[in-house]
Every structure is written in structure tokens, then in C-alpha cells.
Amino acid sequence: MKNVTASEMNQQMAYSEQVKHLVTAGDKTPKALVITYGCQQNENDSERIRGMLKQMGYDFTEEKEEADLILYNTCAVREGAEQRVLGNVGALVHEKRRRPNLLIGICGCMMQQEHMAKTIKQKYKHVSFVFGTHTLHKFPQILWTALNEEKTVISVEDSEGVIAEDVPVYREGSPKAWVSVMYGCNNFCTYCIVPYVRGRERSRQPENVLAEVRELVQKGVTEITLLGQNVNAYGKDLPEDIDFADLLSQINQVEGLKRIRFMTSHPKDMSQKLIDTMAACHKVMPQLHLPFQAGSDRILKEMNRRYTQTQYLDLVARVKKAMPGISMTTDIIVGFPNETKEDFEETIKVLEAVRFDSVFSFIYSKRQGTPAAIMEDSISNEEKHANFDRLLEVQNRISREINDSCFGKTFELLVEGESKTDENMLTGRTPEGKIVNFPKEDGISVGDYIHVTVTKTNTWSLLGEICRD
Ligand code: SAH
Ligand code: SF4
Ligand code: F3S
């Protein structure tokens, strides 16, 4: 049974009521701070955590000193992210001493690993509760237990994963929203921890996805990003005959919705049907995130990616043919065990051939329990870092050249908010996903669609002025 039953959800609802009764008994509304690491899937989970917190009577704060509950939603994909969480949680020991009633929780992918939950229990005694990815919907019960018990509550279940449909979601009022279409991953790339902490691939029923999209549109959302570790495997596990392309076509028909994006696609599952559907659906934006990870066929094989460089480049050629001008982005790992200079040059070759708009690059990080963790590695850290710097140099030039080619062109923007660096500017994204900042003007507000002409270009963003014709 993949779907959490109605009776289990009712039970959680009852816990939710009990928590609410307890924490709102005083005259002050309790405040929660949820800190999220990792990918959009985790951000989306945090929205569900906030939904449950709201239901349990909590308000939100950004200040640790003000919070009655601090919850870290963690990522396990690289060691750096884990170290940061441990450092931050460790530093909270003083705050807990000062305010013994403060609740500190840790959840998410990092906690789904047995050794991590153990470490927290043994060494971080000021943590009140821990839960993994498969027990997210049981948060009311976990919190209730933590409120009533002294020792650390641990809720980590070994599971293939479930789907909990009726968890409330709390989203910041924005014209954009994320909608998960599937959870988990079956690909087992040899470097990656995700399949171990997120369970097997499981797709939401199309009618549930569509209902959520329609509801969001009714609330004023006009752009949605469909989420999944591998969205184009959507439907493989469903009884009905539906794939991701079919789902896209259905969502494309939702009235009032203007923009559809999705991530992440695995090259091995990117069918010609999906390419043709993207091209045919006018709401699907001209943007594709298609991680290739490495250029060398030998390394791709060691990574268990199940495509070659030639197949990847052929796929990109077909995507560009169907959608000229499409913006492409990718993920790359530098320094996989025994990636030689010659192997790495193949990665640079792909960068030069595809000319991605932007690239998310990572130095390989050993993950306990994955096959790559026990592979021998003769490459020095200096060499890995030198390769990484070279990659950034090449890509920065390409990103800059692509952005420079936008000069003088006019784009439709969805206005998303104030610019992060200048309060006199607003910011928005083009259909291709490029950020454009432009001066504030009366009558233009968040959620509007406007046209902007690019007047200045940078490597990471563009500057524009509103176009009136
Ligand atoms: N499902 C997505 C995203 C997975 S995690 C996909 O398949 O692309 C996001 C990125 O983190 C991956 O694409 C990969 O580039 C990177 N990553 C995963 N495991 C890693 C590791 N052990 N070390 C360094 N980077 C890693
Ligand atoms: Fe990790 Fe590979 Fe699955 Fe992506 S497709 S989540 S990189 S195992
Ligand atoms: Fe990290 Fe978990 Fe996402 S490991 S990348 S938060 S699925």
C-alpha cells in the first residue's frame, strides 16, 4: 500500500488537535522556525511541515531567539551540507540551556540514514526529536510525544516510501509554486545517496496532481514547477496508462495557468514523445534541466548513468531541434573516483558542445553506503580542485556569452518580487528562466506579466527596462 490510509491521517489529525490544545494554552502564539537544506523536493516538504505546524497552532519566525521550536529539514547529498547541519545544531546547545522548553528537531534525508540518527541520539542530547523522510506525515504524533517526553524521540522507518496526500501545505503567497508529481528514485547512480533516503519511485495519481494545480491557480498562482528526482519516470508505477508527457499535456490545459516548468529529468528517460510534447504545449517553458554528470563514457558507466556522451549529445540535438532557443542547464560532478585528466577533458568537451545557460557543479563527495564509497581513488584533491576551477572558468565564459546575446532583446517577465541586492528594483524571470532586474514603477506588482528590454548583461543576471510597445 503506497498511499497512507485515511484512518492513519485521521489519527494524525487527532494528534494535531492535542498539540494545538497544549501549545496554545498560554496567551502567546507559539513560534516555529523551519530551516531547509537541499533540493526543491525538500523545500516542498518544508511547506508541508509548515502546513502541519500552522494546523497545530504555530506561527512562524526567522529568529532563533524568538522560536519555541526550531526544525532543521536536512540534505544528505554531500558531506558539506551534513557538516553544516551538525555545526548549527551543536551551536544551539547554549540556547537550549537558556530556554529548556525550546524544542529542537531534525528531519529529512540526513536523518533517514541509520548512522546519523544514532549520532544525534548519542551526541546531541539537546535535540528533542528526529524523523526521517518516510514519517513526515506523522509529524503531529512525533511532536506530541516530544512535548511529553524527556528523551529524544526518534522516528525513522525503513520503508520503500509512501504517499501522504492529505497533509496540509503552507506556501508563501507567491505567483509561483512547486508541485511534487513523484517521490523517490530507482536509478542508484553509484555516487548518490538519494535512493537510499527517499525510497523507491512512486507517482501521485494524476487526478491528485491536477487537483492541486487547479487549487493553486484559483489562489492566484500562474507558474508551477513539477518536481521529482526523475520526473520523466512518472507513471511507470501507476496502473493506468500514463506517462510524464501525458501529464504535461493535461496540466497544459488548466485554465488560468500560464507557465509550467519541471525538474529533474534523467537523460535515459527523456523520450522523443516528451520532447515533442514540450514543444507542442505552449505553457511549458523553453527550459530544460538535464544533468549529464560527466563527459567520459568510462566514468558514466562507473556512475551507472546508463547513457554515453554520444547519446547525451544526440538527445540535446533533438531537444534543440524541436525547441530552438531553449535554455539548457545541467549538473556535473568533478572528481568521481579515478576520473583522470583525460576523462575530465570529456566533460569540458560536452560543456563546449552544448553551451548550457548555467551549470550546477559539485566536487564528488563520498557517501557512506553507496557503491562508489568503496571504489579506489588515485586522484589528488589538488587535481580535483584544479579541474573544478577550470570547469567554472569555461562555464562562466559561456554563460556570459549567452547572456550578452540577450542585450537589446525583449522578454516577457513574471514579476516575482524585490531584487535581492537593490530595494529600488524588482526582479522576474523570462520564459527561459533568466533573472532580469528592472527599476520599480507604480502600477507594477508581484504576479504581473510584463515586457522588459535588456539594457545590461552580467554572468548571472540581466538588467532591463519596461517596454511599453
Ligand atoms: N535526481 C536528480 C538530482 C539528484 S541530487 C538527478 O538525477 O539529477 C542533485 C545533484 O547532486 C546531482 O545531479 C549530482 O550532480 C549531485 N550529487 C549527487 N550525489 C553527489 C555526490 N556524492 N557528490 C557530489 N555531488 C553529488
Ligand atoms: Fe541520485 Fe541518480 Fe537518482 Fe538522481 S537519478 S537522485 S543522481 S540516483
Ligand atoms: Fe538532498 Fe534529499 Fe534533496 S539528499 S538533494 S534533500 S532528496
Structure explained in plain terms:
The chain is built from 14 helices and 19 strands. With 469 residues, it is α/β, with parallel strands linked by helices. It has a 6-stranded parallel beta sheet with strand order 2-1-3-4-5-6, sandwiched between helices. It has a 5-stranded mixed β-barrel with strand order 15-16-17-19-18. A 3-stranded parallel beta sheet has the order 7-10-11, with helices on both faces. Helix 13 (341-354) links the parallel strand 13 (327-334) and strand 14 (358-363). Helix 1 packs parallel to helix 6 (139-148), helix 9 (244-252) packs parallel to helix 10 and helix 13 packs parallel to helix 14 (381-404). The longest helix is centred in the last third of the chain and has 24 residues, at 381-404. It is globular. The mean pLDDT is 96. Bound molecules: S-adenosyl-L-homocysteine, iron/sulfur cluster and FE3-S4 cluster.
Low-confidence stretches: none
**Share in β-strands:** 15-25%
- What distance lies between the first and last C-alpha atoms, to the nearest angstrom? 56 Å
Q: What ions, cofactors and ligands are bound?
A: S-adenosyl-L-homocysteine, iron/sulfur cluster, FE3-S4 cluster
Q: Kindly state the mean pLDDT as a whole number?
A: 96
Number of helices: 14
Helical amount: 25-40%
| Helix/sheet category | alpha/beta
Based on DSSP secondary structure assignment, what is the total number of beta strands? 19
Shape: globular
Gyration radius over CA:
23 Å
The biggest beta sheet, please? 6 strands, parallel
User: Could you give the order of strands across the largest sheet?
Assistant: 2-1-3-4-5-6
